[in-house]
Amino acid sequence: MAFAGEEGGGARKLWVFFMPFFATSHIIPITDLACLFAGHPGVEPTIVTTPANANLIRPTLDRHAASGCHVHLLLHPFPSVDLPYAIIADICYWWTTDIAGELGIPRITSHAAGVFPQIVMNNLVKNRVHDNVPNDSHPFTIPDLPGPEIKMVKSELPEFLQKHDFLTQAWDDLKRSQLESYGVVVNTFYEFEREYCDLFKVVDSQRAWFVGPLALRGKREVEAGFNKERCMRWLEKKEIGSVVFVCFGSWCHFKDEQLRELALGLEGSGMDFIWVVRGGDDENMKMEWMPEGWEERVKDKGLVFKGWVPQAAILGHEGVGVFMTHCGWNSVMEGLSFGKPMLTWPLAFDHFISERLLVEVLKVGVRVWDGFRSTLQNEKVVVPAEAIARAMKKFSEKDSEEMKKRAMEWKKITGATVEKDGSSYKDLNCLIDELLMFYEKKKNDSIFEHYLQGMVILLPLCYRRVPSFGFVSLAATRGLSGVGVPPRIIKVVFTCRSREIGVMLLVLMLLFTVISMLAKFSRYYLKPENAKCTMLNIEFHNVTLKHA
Question: pTM for the whole thing?
């Protein structure tokens, strides 16, 4: 039965396992990457996931399958002893590097974060300059960064950097695994993080491929049923660039008090908006935090969703002019892919670092709040409605035109990078080609090793009856079998059950040869009949040597 790489008993494809971390922000980009792999002949991708997460993946896979790009889902214990030829696993699965090494296959590390936040976190782990600041709000400079100077405050760092004993061993395991893996694939593109990509290749990976934006490459439009239809109908009625899209990812959430302030801020801005509130898929779920009468007051200006929406489709609509985001990396990539300037409201982990890239390096973003902010949930400060409205209004002013132009320029760049001869297009093909070459080499080596399983080819000096045959006789005493091909092509082959024994015997053979030469060969010639072994005078015929 053909399975996982077999085609009706024919040639086997390059079988690659994709192992996403079980969070939406990790699953989506690695699913997009698997679909891109499926578009290449000779590659068969399989996503390893749980039944609970399969429903999130299947719509994307079904859509690509309709165009002939098939990705398998593995939802049960492996039904075969067959091994994949490569593993592309989320960085959280650091242990897959060791397993892949034992199996002799490459493990590629997949990142949900961009290169810039990774470089910043690495440098802070090494230098820990933030440990010397007088308080959590005191700014410090990120060391050893190319490009413009970047300042941060301790309260906005990931929790593992704020606390010495928090996830330090886990971080060490992740980075060791990444450096020892075959390479790293990142959802970014070279032009976006040029200087940081160059540094990343040198200090943080053996190889690196920048293949994003994955959402743009896959032309992904996640099925969202009624939400999608309702959203598109509403947007069609709005002026170009007039709508603010407000979405904070799949797992970030606010307390009720902050939700009320956000609602009032959206209303106070006077701008049209689409707001995605994290709270489940139940359209009838009551939102008790909502200000009294608010829905009625904004019914012509705003649209509120309580579940999943097609983010890429919304951002791609010309009616949307601004994206209010938590700065999760997938959202950063999608916002730039569609040329949207961003209102930044980072919440956790690397979000504040990614915000620095948008606001201070690329200058395509504006902070919603300039007061105290923290990645720690118990330190969150409620951002007032007035500040939210004030930040939104900046995009209705003339001063924002340059920022909008810069954002639209990135739309052109991202479009070019995924087309043929673009940097991401080339990197994706380079990654697949390298895996195919690794696979072909391993396949050829396997054929050779099958023939030489426990075999050593002895190539002694070309004299008649050289001491190698005496060595074969000694090998026979260890229960080994061998082949002798004498005079003109003097070659002895024997098989053993251990490569280590084979190497040891080869070294002994060379020593035997040197000693015999020094002793003037003739005194140490070993006659075949005395060796209790069989000699052949016909080249390339095999005969088994057995110790008598």
Answer: 0.74
